[in-house]
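Forwarding the complex inputs:
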Amino acid sequence: MRVVVGPVSEFPPGARRIVQAGVRSIGVFRVGERFYGIRNRCPHQGGPLCLGHMLGDAVADEPGRAHVSAEPLRIACPWHGWEYDLDSGQSFMGPGEAGVRSYGVGTAPGEALLAEIEAGSTQLRPGPYVAETFEVRVEDDYVVLDA
Amino acid sequence: MPAFTMQPNAVDCDVHVAPASVQDLFPYLSDYWRQYVTEAGVRLTDMAHAYPPAVTGPLPHSFAELAERYLEPAQPQVAVLNCVTGFETHRNPYFSAAVASAVNDWLREEFLGHDDRLRASLAVSAVSPDDAVAEIQRVGEDPRFLQVLLPARSDLPWGHKNNHAMFAAARERSLHVGLHAWGRPGKAPTPSGFTTTYLEDYVGNQPIAQAQLLSFVAEGVFERVPDLRVMLIENGFAWLPPLLWRFDKDWKGVWREVPWVTEPPSEYVRRHFAMTTAPAHIPDDPAAVDQLLEMLGGAGMLAYASDHPHEHGAGIQPLLAQLSDADRDAVLRGNAAELYGLSAPQAA
Amino acid sequence: MTQIDTAPETQAPATRAVELIDCDVHAQATDAMLAEHMGPSSRRMLERFGRSTPKVTDWYPRARNAGMRVDAWPNKPGHIWGSDPEMLREQLLDEFDVDYAILEVLSGQDCYDHPDLAADRNRAVNEWQLHTWLDFDPRLRATIAVAHEYPELGVAEIERRAEDERFVAVLLPASAAEPLGSPKYWPLYEAATACGRPVVIHTGGYVDHRGAGYPSFYLEYHVANGLVMQSQLAGMVAGGLFEAVPGLRVVLTESGLAWAAALRWSLDAAWEVMGQDHPRLRRRPSEYIDEHVWFTTQPIEEPADPQHLVAAIRQARLEHRLLFATDYPHWDFDSPAQALPRAIGPELRHAVRCGNALDLYGLPRERAIVNGG
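Prediction (whole assembly, three chains):
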């Protein structure tokens, strides 16, 4: 299902929202001009993954000398800190370790969305940080999650 | 020595020798150090706090004694001599370095020259990394030295950056590290202070060795010196699997503190560590031994040792009995031979 | 039409069978919260000089997220992780359907405060548990914090709390000025046992890294929590603590469990060679451990093959000695929903989740339903 998260204008860089898509809780993130969607459930012990810190990589040249790299961008579970690539959902330990489901998130103009909503192929699902439901307007752009 | 602790034709990774008294080292000490010893009545204790009479036979002080008491009955292919006399040395870093040099010269003169089955650990000062490097450079070319001997009990964990130059120097001379139980007396072994019985002190070696293992990995020693191997000598080994489960799990959460540890710690440990088989401290039940072997990932990290003349009670036999011929051969010979680069040992 | 008077139905409170007991929960008091329960001279001393004893986070500060779950910060003024009963009820008791949660408040686990302050601080911890927690939710239980370095004062505090059954154990740190098996601390063990309480020995306290020296990293420090407890257990067994206090029950808490088997093998092997010379060690060490020692599960070890964890439990004979714990709100929290692998099977799962703790603590096996839960 496609889920309209909210107006792009209310989703500035650095923002994140937790949305419900059916029974699933999904975290939607904006980093710069890119959007990411990650299942809000850590594969380790089920913690609320999307409430954790977002971190670039830490790379060491040798013991004691390290720098931060912007990519890959990861989300660290607020419980044990296990990390997952925001883009692919892959565990920081690589493909052999259980990863988390990632979702495509993009933007779409209101006009197109209104047609989809009427046709029933897209749903309006604001996250808990939005105080009330919003209307989709023709002239605005919206963040859309492919759940 | 009870016969069951001897495995003939083995590569024996822990055989003890020691000078009978500090006077035995005099040929290898300067006149100043001879006077230093004599004038103050300095004596060696044979590490009696670690090896009281209840748990040891007589230490070989000469090649003749070693030959009669050990080489004859044990018939090793190779025996690695460990002289832990230097573990008890004063904190005077200069004396510590002088004693280490003297021990190495004594080993070469008194033992290594007499039988080409003999190898040794290279003694270094445990309180001065610079002097340790100097000693490694002085005698480390001698191919009969296999590894740098370090005590498990230390002021600072051995993985600390202060020691990294020593590990690099070791590899430059094709040496590994032997981390041997015990250390300087007078140092409380537990986080809450002194043990009051020998039994506690003895068992206390094992958490200490584990803490050292954590240090080697967390401090990135194997990133700095990728071909270094560490033989844990006389520290037991059955504690390893649960330690690695915990170490891996904790690393996954806090790796950013040590980003040079780029793989799960257990991967480093399996590649770089080995452990001698005395003391064994394994269960009696063969099914439990099998489980332990499975948790260890097989016997590939185990290296046989008699630990002559020390007594540990029930030994490694029940574990050896559970192994295939090939795996038993690896424990008795192959694993150590590979680690130390010994020429291909003959199978029994 | 006959008028029928129906008497109002008296409804017995609904009860449920207990299924989950959390044996390690950290309510955490701020200094201000404790000060409310302390005497004026203690308060003045704290205001003017602070405390002498460093907190572990002062010398290994780089714990993961200050040692806590990121999502457990209450966002209420004056509160910190674990200080808000409502948040704890919501995030732990209700979220996971916990029947009983045993609080271990670590704020008093210090050795180097002088005796007056240590006694007052620990008394305040217990008063805070009483007023802020035990009265708040009937699912909560408490442990008696004591000034353990001053055993006489500690004994007085144990006796002060003994009548209140909701204090279910005495709390000690896993590292103190002397090894915990030392005769210095025996009066505490005797007093706990005399009033029917086990002694919870909880990771922490003042840990001095003497054997191998001080590690550089929190990673090493954290893994070494298991090593600390191994030393303590060896000392308790070898020093004859369980001979001296025959009814003593200790609960080794937050130090892991999978290391127990190898330690038992070591102690037993050593005893064969040298035990007869240790007059206080009259029996095989593993027998003492069988009879006197319990373990909490958290932080549960997670081998790649969960069957190995089951094997470790059975090798150490922990089937009736293992107590489930979450360690809420710490970062290495174990979720009651997920932490126990399926491989342990339903019988062991039930024993760990509640059966063993019901037996140990003598808690009622049925409890009243609270707020619909």
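Chain C is about 40% helix and 15% strand.
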